[in-house]
Amino acid sequence: MAVASLVLGILSILIALFGFGSLWWLAPVLGIIGIVLGVQGKKDYGKRGLAQAGFVCSIVGTVLSLLWYVACAALFGSLLAWAF
Amino acid sequence: MGLQLGNRVIPYYGLCMVLGVAAASLAGWKQAKLYRKSFDDLITIAGCAGLGGILGAKLLYLAVSWRSIDWSRVLSDGGYLSALMGGGFVFYGGVIGAVLGAWTGGRIFRIVVGDYVQLAAPCIPLGHAIGRLGCGLAGCCYGIPYSGPAAIVYENSLLAPAGVSLFPVQFLESALEFILAGVLFFYTDRHIERAKHGFEIYLGTYAVLRFFLEYLRGDERGIYGGLSTSQWLSLALLAAVVWYTALWSRRRGNAGKTVKKGEG
To answer: What is the pTM of this model?
Structure first.
């Protein structure tokens, strides 16, 4: 769980920062899964440090990815016009 | 539309969403400490609820606006898929998804979800109230045309009509949710018995508020049988809360009778 959390956390940061084309919406999903796995991973005392790192990276990735949302129940046509 | 930081603009909506999640998390930490529960387990349940919420909000959005989506472009056009997945969430879909997500998380990680959902109840309207401020600043979820006190006119919004005087429904909803959060914090503070009903009170009150606020919304609502999708969901949610509360009261009454018989 600790390793998975760290991998997901780093991936969410990279996707949030660089977008990777059409995948940017995946960043908060990966970040939240990373947070959950990081918290649960901390229960394994031997991998506590790794889980802590995964937890922090996942929080950073989630925050960075959520920051770029422009609206909620958006009218899709308007967003599409803005995106292109 | 956003906060200028150097040559980057952070959208107000995203900023308010992050601030809302941060405020709700901080309040959740305080609540976990107050009721002597594990904050790690609270984060786990909140994370699972968040995942379920994103999925539910997105699925309901896709269901409501499926006619306006060009499904033939979804798999062939990456930009189209990106805009489709990144923009458009329906709060009520999020609520239903969050409940299912929290329940599933509890089963997977063997956590008693009920305790955490109840203690986190006041944190939900707090986070939502701050998020709704983002809607008001971004111009989404806008109100009906109105020219009375506190009317808003958007000039550069992606979603609200430019130059039209509108009812500030997002700010009204935000204010009502701040009040609801305050009342729930005050009502449940250090009262374990009262805190057991926090989530039902939140859901029931929000359903009623949202039902009436829908009449003040001017954006596309998806009307069926004279009511919007959110109004139908409000009625369903209210019915579920009333049914659950009646069931709980009856069970409690039966348990009380059993104890009295045992005493006699």
So the answer is: 0.82
